[in-house]
Fold this protein.
Amino acid sequence: MASANDNRVIIFDTTLRDGEQSPGASMTLDEKLRVAHALAELKVDVIEAGFAIASNGDFQSVHEIAKQVKGPTICSLARAAKGDIERAAEALEPAENKRIHTFISTSPLHMKYKLQMEPERVLEKVIESVTLARKFTDDVEWSAEDGSRTEHDFLCRCVEAAIDAGATTINIPDTVGYTTPTEYAELMTMLFNRVPNIDKAILSVHCHNDLGMAVANSISAVNAGARQIECTINGLGERAGNAALEEIVMAINTRNDAFPFTTGIDTTKIMNASRLVSAVSGFVVQPNKAIVGANAFAHESGIHQDGFLKNSETYEIMKPESIGLNKSSLVMGKHSGRHAFKEKLKELGFTDLGDNAIEDAFARFKDLADKKKEVYDDDIVALIDDGMRDNEHIKFVGLTVTCGSKGPQTAELELTVDGETRTAKTTGDGPIDATFNAIKEIYPHDWRLKLYQVHAVTEGTDAQGTVTVKLDGEDRTVVGNASDTDTVVASCLAYVTAVNKLIEKSKKTAPDAMAS
Ligand code: KIV
Ligand code: ZN
């Protein structure tokens, strides 16, 4: 077991649990499996695959990941309740290495208003929940929700009791992203000094990014002796998100003089994981985001370019290759063959596609190469993601629009709904509005459009547009994403994808007092 004297930091990825809890980031089973495989390739130590009791869908995804994904320990979250812990154990049953992560709030505010429980009852529940979880696995993590705002005496009593009951990892979340690097490090030191059995467990940190300090807080806690960091790809997560895995790992690698720790992460797989999570969650990575943003390695200003060309270290502290970013991302054109295409898919991390999926992707690549002179890595990723839609109740068949200043703008749309062909011809305030009206005529619903955005995948007027549509309905928000060189077609596909997800999601139910 790693300890504070050991410099190895355990990377616990919670993209599929805390990240997926972010409104609108919900993923289908297939998408979660793809992300879990990418995390295994990245060599994270633990994958928190979901919250098994949350719904049948969540149970199924934890179970499938436990069955199919080898390498990392697979973990499920559970509240301090018998039903939650038993359901987590059942979902994790096929895993080679499994962890149950049970939690309860310990701050005065949460105990009084959220749990409406006296501290002594909370303490009893800590012991009961960890004791029960240990009946199913030796690897039990206990979290003090809102730990950073918990009274120190009470936190010490809970941590000691959890370790006595068998917890092997103790996690102290900064649930509301309120702490500071110095304060959080002092909290770790306080626990090391005051909890008598603290050496029997790994101390873990879990930081939210409300004040933009999640990564700094996590690393500061590791400097003070914590040896597990909970984080997500692209910093995905509720509100301002969680600590970003790629930033933590690259900070440790690049500034090893200041942070003398190691992780097991294969950093060359970072870019693949980032692209995949962005595509399936619909959360586009901001261009100036550290490590994985499109501009993170771009040198545009003349002075910078001049220095960079003389010696790249003048302005570059990390090599793009170290995160799996190829210097030249121009891949191929319409004369490229199947073999080169397959090699490119492997290089981009699509290692588990079957023959049919590759054939299908190759056909779509050829179509794209006919429309677009130069096909880049990002185009290929967008194309594969588009081909991976599952549970499609509604399928796109064809669309014709008229637009321009003379009006009226119209859309003529053909879709299939559960195999039956349906058409509509509608008008609207512009071609996108007309197209969305046509979808509503074919599949009537009162779900609200919360967000519509378009990004160019690459450069040039022939670039593919990636459209993100966020729909709100039935207590859920979902995101649909699609790319095409025709932005109106991409918009239609993105909207249809969101509708398909809502149809699937409306079958789910959520438990009370979900964790943040
Ligand atoms: O933010 C939080 O407190 C959580 C816990 C359940 C670990 O996500
Ligand atoms: Zn959290």
Summary: The chain is about 40% helix and 20% strand. Residues 18, 173, 175, 206, 208, 516 surround zinc ion (ligand 2) (CB under 6 Å).
